[in-house]
Design goal:
The chain is an alpha+beta fold. It is about 40% helix and about 25% strand. The strands form 2 sheets. A 3-stranded antiparallel beta sheet has the order 1-2-3. Strand 4, helix 5 and strand 5 form a beta-alpha-beta unit. The longest helix is centred in the middle third of the chain and has 17 residues.
């Protein structure tokens, strides 16, 4: 959907995503390292769909924070927040395997943040 809105092949986009399963939000989009989230929001606004017009970036940021806060309060939850930096997991096998190591590592309850 975002690739269609931007008219850019999906393989050329990098996404920041928060959530799991069916509950998730794209919180950032980059094309060749350039932040294109403002362009995504501009193009969505130009589509004229009433239910999309009122979405503000601050709302999406607050939604992400509330979701993370909720996960931290669950008994027994284990949350892994990964900052990919400039890594492209499709083309950077070293970064991909480091991510898998973090996912497979035994963890205690709580939130863990890592930078690849």
């Amino acid at each position: 959907m975002i690739a269609l809105v931007l008219d850019i092949p999906c393989a050329e986009l990098e996404f920041d995503y928060a959530g799991m399963h069916h509950s998730g939000w794209v919180t950032g989009v980059r094309h060749r390292g350039r932040d294109v989230m403002p362009l995504v929001l501009e193009r969505i606004a130009s589509r004229g769909r009433s239910y999309e017009q009122a979405i503000q970036i601050t709302y999406l940021e607050q939604l992400q924070q509330r979701y993370l806060d909720h996960l931290q309060k669950l008994d027994g939850s284990r949350v892994l927040i990964v900052d990919l930096g400039e890594h492209d997991l499709l083309h950077d096998q070293v970064a991909y395997h480091r991510l898998l190591e973090h996912i497979d590592a035994p963890v205690q309850e709580g939130v863990r943040q890592v930078l690849l």
